[in-house]
Structure formats: structure tokens, C-alpha cells
Amino acid sequence: MMADNVSCIPKWHSRSTMPYETMHFDSHVWEYDFKNPMKPVGDDFEDFLKHTGIHVLTFCGDCGIEENFEVYLLNDHKYTAMFGVKWDKFCKANNFKIGQKIRFKFNMF
Fold first, then answer.
1. Would you call 6 helix, strand, or coil by DSSP?
2. What is this structure's pTM?
3. How deeply is 95 buried, as exposed, middle or buried, from its count of CB atoms within 10 A (0-12, 13-18, 19+)?
């Protein structure tokens, strides 16, 4: 099966990880994601977004649907990072399921 053989996975695919070339963050899809246009992120992913100063993220699901999301840093007590708007529609368009793990991958060149 192609997905099991890492050497067959194209570099752009979320399951392709190259040491020192890619960075990834895994998250789960919850019922909240289908009801809210914004996705809060936490922990290492949040720190990464704050440190790199990324303002726009382009996501592409396995079915090829691509969407741009702005990154928002909320001026609350934690300086929370979120992205959106239309996250809920993106989840539905990509047929995500509650409890499914999704990966956010970045190429570091």
C-alpha cells in the first residue's frame, strides 16, 4: 500500500516528513470544529505560529480542496492563536469526522 511506504509519499503530502525539512502538528477534529468558523490552536503549534509570524495559512485536504486562513493572535490573558474564518466549512467540505486526527505540515526552506 502506498501510504505505508514512506518513500512513495510525495513531499507535499501531509504524511511525508523529512528531517530538518518539515515540521508538523497533529490535532483532532471535534464537534466544535463543525460549528465554529475559527479554530483555536494550542501548545507547540501556537508557539510556532507566534514565533514565525505567519499571517496566512494555506490548507489542502486529501480531496484537493484548498483554502487560505488568516492567523489571529488574540490579545487575551494567554495571547491565544486561532485561524479562520470558514474553518467549519473546510471541515465539512473535506468530510472530516469527529475524532479524526489531522496534520498541519510546514516545509521549512
1. helix
2. 0.75
3. exposed
- 54-85 pLDDT, tens per residue? 899 988 887 778 899 999 988 776 768 899 99
The residue with cell 509519499 is: 9
Please report how many Cα atoms fall inside a 13 Å half-sphere around the Cα of residue 90, on the Cβ side.
Answer: 24
Q: Which residues pair with 82 in a beta bridge?
A: 40, 72
What is the helix (H) or strand (E) element at residue 84, kind and residue range?
strand 81-84
φ/ψ of residue 106, rounded to 5:
-125, 135
Residue type, 17: T
What would the pLDDT profile of 17-39 be if each residue is shown by its tens digit? 666 677 888 899 999 999 999 99
- Count the residues in the chain: 109
